[in-house]
Amino acid sequence: MQPTPGFAALVALGLLSAALYASILPVAAWFGVEPLAWHPFVFTALFALYLVALWLVLRRLPSTAHTVGVILFFGLLFRSLMLTTPVYLSSDIYRYLWDGRVQWAGQNPYRYAPAAVELQSLRDPALHPFINRPEAVTAYPPGAQWVFALAAGLAPGSVPGWRLVLLVTELGTLWVLLRLLRGTRVPGTAILAYAWSPLVVFEGVQAGHVDLLLILFVLLALMLRRGGSSIRAGGLLGIAALIKVYPALLVGAWWRRHDWRFPAAVGATVALGYLPYAATLGAGALGFLPSYFLDRREDFNVGLRALLTWGTGLSAETPRRLAIVLLLGAVAAALVWIGRAHARGRYDTWQATTLAIGVWLALGPFSVHPWYVLWMVPFLCGTPAPAWLYFSGAVVLSYAEYLVPSARLPWWAWLGEYGPLYALLAAGAWRKTLRPTPAPLAVRPT
After folding, report:
1. SS3 readout for the chain
2. CA 279 vs CA 65, 87, 118, 254, 293: distances in Å
């Protein structure tokens, strides 16, 4: 079959994107800049190519198995190009490797901080000096710890080894996502929204964030929940919440009246996951997590709360706490509303999930690191959402905090991220008041 001009353009976009991913480090070295300083520029270029490719597959290309295969090939190629690159976006990956090493040494990862003398024999110059917050115990829940231990057993202390674990996870995520798209009558080519997302490639595989793993379990839980499952879906969502806490938000969005098995399954899974650690440490099994949410020194790229407390400063503790309580209340109210609308059939489970994640990202009063946006990206495949598509690219501006002398997020970076986001969300809400029936999920006929 003769390739169409649209298909040839898609291949050209994939090749150009691959060349950009491969040239990041050589070009940064040629300009004499650190990779982190070069990152926002190359990310912007890749995001522009991504938008063109997304427009192409959603508006110009028919959805065929051949086209989907090409999309998946390039998506995996982009990720593979990141496997052996040096770490420059986040040092979190070193904490993952350390926690895995600690567990293989027979230690409870929540008992001692990396700087503790009890763990001195585990230190080496390749890993320990790069761990962030070495004086604090780990913040990662048990589900994440199990994967850290697995990776440490397969490839001890290896950054490429950890990334390879995530790459294998991505194979599962892409498979589940394709199945979900078929179930919602969305063309398979829409998977490009996730497969080619620069945010997923960089923050997922290059930075190695464990958030990629929770995406797989959220999607698996979603697939079962849509099929009517309560216990199995609740168990999988509980595992996702044991990797990172925030998927627990979906309990409210997915709950159905009189169905107590689902929230009970989530709660039981989380409780069982923590039980071996809490049995010896009690509340200490939460590790650094409470401090991470409550300590103002952990504030980074805060969204609406920064606007609410503008004029008093984020360091002013009283307005900060008041804004946190206010916004958490708004999030809770919104999740209850989403859950009720879902139970009444106004939204299906996919749409309810997208809304719940959006509520947390828009109203949540805590830090918004770029990788915290990752779990929204799969839902860009099925729900046209200009606000979140924009934010999945604009969140790269948050790296400006690490690149300016003041070590604070510049006002122009915050405004560039959140100004258009809230404007697009407001415009979308206004359109929905004029058209209360939700738009269909399919973006074009198959």
Report:
1. CCCCHHHHHHHHHHHHHHHHHHHHHHHHHHHCCCHHHHHHHHHHHHHHHHHHHHHHHHHCCCCCHHHHHHHHHHHHHHHHCCCCCCCCCCCHHHHHHHHHHHHHCCCCCCCCCCCCHHHHHHCCCCCHHHCCCCCCCCCCCHHHHHHHHHHHHHCCCCHHHHHHHHHHHHHHHHHHHHHHHHHCCCCHHHHHHHHCCHHHHHHHHHCCCCHHHHHHHHHHHHHHHHCCCCHHHHHHHHHHHHHCCHHHHHHHHHCCCCCCHHHHHHHHHHHHHHHHHHHHHHHHHHCCHHHHHHCHHHCCCCCHHHHHCCCCCCCCHHHHHHHHHHHHHHHHHHHHHHHHHHHCCCCCHHHHHHHHHHHHHHHCCCCCCHHHHHHHHHHHCCCCCHHHHHHHHHHHHHHHHHCCCCCCCCHHHHHHHHHHHHHHHHHHHHHHHHCCCCCCCCCCCC
2. 51, 36, 21, 31, 24
pLDDT number for residue 315 = 55
Calculate the alpha carbon distances from 196 to 55, 128, 423 in Å: 12, 33, 26
Q: How far is 115 from 96, CA to CA, in rounded Å?
A: 15
Give mean pLDDT in consecutive 10-residue pieces for the chain, a chain of 446 residues: 78 97 92 93 97 92 92 98 95 96 94 94 92 92 96 95 97 96 90 98 97 97 92 96 96 89 96 94 86 79 86 67 92 94 90 95 94 96 89 96 85 94 92 62 43
Angular region, 185: left φ>0, alpha ψ -120 to 50, beta rest: left
Q: Alpha-carbon distance 388 to 376, whole Å?
A: 8
Q: Computed from CA positions of residues 169, 170, 174, 177, in that sequence, does the dihedral angle turn out positive or negative?
A: positive
Question: Tokens 């504030």 belong to which residue?
Answer: 299
Euclidean distance between CA atoms 432 and 430, whole angstroms: 5
- pLDDT at residue 2 in the model: 57
Tokens 């209850």 correspond to 336
Dihedral angle sign, alpha carbons of residues 407, 410, 416, 422: positive
pTM (whole model) above 0.85: yes
Q: Say how far apart CA 184 and CA 172 lie, in whole Å.
A: 19
